[in-house]
Structure formats: C-alpha cells, structure tokens
Amino acid sequence: MSEQSRRSMPAPGGAPAAWTFFRQWLRNPRAMAALSPSGRQLTRMMIDQLPAGARRIVELGAGTGVFTRALLARGIAQKDLLVVELNAELHALLHREFPEASIVHGDARDLVEIASRVGFAQQGGADAAISGLGFLAMPREIQKGILEAIFAVLGPGRPLIQFTYGPASPIPGDLARELGLVVQRAGIAPLNLPPAFVFVYTR
Ligand SMILES: C[S@@+](CC[C@H](N)C(=O)[O-])C[C@H]1O[C@@H](n2cnc3c(N)ncnc32)[C@H](O)[C@@H]1O
C-alpha cells in the first residue's frame, strides 16, 4: 500500500483519517501543526527509539492515532498507555478506537495532574514519552511548561521522543540547557510529507 493511500484509510469513526486530520487543521492550523498524519517511515522511526523493555508509555498530541496504533503493534498494552489530545474531535475518535487505554481530552501542560488523576503516576515513572506536539509553533513559556511536565512523569533517564519538520531541534538550545536535557538527533524520515527529523531528549 502506498504512503498516501495508507494515510487515507478510514478512521474507526468512518471518515478517512487524513480528511479528519485536514478538517482539524483548517479549524486550528497552529495547534495541529501539520496538514496530514505522520507517515509509515516516520512512525517506525519514532517507535524504534523506545528503550528496550519499555512498557508504560505517555503519548502527547496523538492526532488520528498513527503512533498509538504502532505502539500497540509493538506490544505495548492499552492499559499501559496514557494519551493526551487537545482536540475534542480527535480525542473522541481515539477514545472509540482504544477503549482500554487512558485517552484524556486535555492539554499536555497539565500532564502531571492528568497522570495523577487517571492513576498513571501512582505506578511509577513512565518508560518513554512519544510526542507529535508542534513545539516550533509554541511560545517558550508553553514549551517549558510542557517539557517540565513530561520529565516529571518520566522515570529517571527515560526519553522524550519527538519529531519535527526541520533539521534543528524544535526545543531551543538555551531551554534544553536550562532544563538539563541531552539532545540527540536520532534520524530523518525523508519519505514523510513533509520530510521529518526525529529527536530524543533525556535528562
Ligand atoms: C502534528 S499533529 C500530530 C498527530 C499525530 N501524532 C501524528 O503524528 O500524525 C499534533 C497534534 O497535537 C495536538 N495538540 C496540540 N497542542 C496540544 C497540547 N497542548 N496538548 C495535547 N495535544 C495537543 C493536536 O490537536 C494534534 O492532534
């Protein structure tokens, strides 16, 4: 199946996922930060960054669920997944498709409170965070708030896996230094539309 036709597969709610995604982009291009869901090559590269033995995963900005589906295909159980999605329509779609996961309609900035509310925090730190958030479109204070929340719920030394559409880290260098983050560019997905780069952050 081609990259393009795979992206157009119907979401469980009925409409093709790519169309659902595009409609949300028309409504709020800044928050969506992309015209269409991530493609297969980028998705695989993101999932490949999971640390060996990773079990409990936080996903931020899941969109139509391309990474969520890939996490499950990699053997992550729905009960070990906490997904936070800001867009109400996409949240409803994710909730329908992944009924046993903790799918929360909320803001990544509130991750600490959300993890505590759904009982995710009580079980210890998460093994990885995987993010589709558009950091480049966010003011520094929001970037900082979200990153602080992510590293508060991650276990020690556990990674934040993030993609972006340029070769530079979407987290400004001075903010990464302030938060004590080690930045690693893990790879490029040239077949993605647009081509994307994967970054891994640890503390
Ligand atoms: C570029 S899309 C990525 C979607 C999906 N991960 C993918 O790769 O196809 C960004 C997603 O982040 C969501 N989002 C934006 N800001 C958010 C926030 N503060 N908290 C949670 N989700 C957010 C948007 O609604 C959108 O679904």
Provide the CATH top-level class. Alpha Beta
Helix-strand pattern: HHHHEHEHEHEHEHEE
Strand content: 15-25%
Number of strands: 7
Number of helices: 9
Provide the gyration radius in Å: 16 Å
Q: How would you classify the helix and strand content by structural class?
A: alpha/beta
CATH topology: Rossmann fold
CATH superfamily: Vaccinia Virus protein VP39
Task: State mean pLDDT (0 to 100 scale).
Answer: 92
Poorly predicted residue ranges: 1-13
CA-CA gap between termini: 39 Å
Distinct small molecules bound, one entry per kind: S-adenosylmethionine
Helix content: 25-40%
* Total count of domains: 1
Question: What global shape is seen?
Answer: globular
What can you see in these coordinates?
This protein is an alpha/beta fold and 203 residues long. The chain has one domain: Vaccinia Virus protein VP39 (Rossmann fold). Helices cover 36% and strands 18% of the residues. A 7-stranded mixed β-sheet has the order 3-2-1-4-5-7-6, sandwiched between helices. The radius of gyration is 16 Å and the shape is globular. The structure holds S-adenosylmethionine. The site of S-adenosylmethionine has 22 residues, from helix 3, helix 5 and strand 2.
What are the key terms here?
single chain; 203 residues; alpha/beta; Rossmann fold; seven-stranded mixed beta sheet; 7 strands; 36% helix; globular; disordered N terminus; binds S-adenosylmethionine
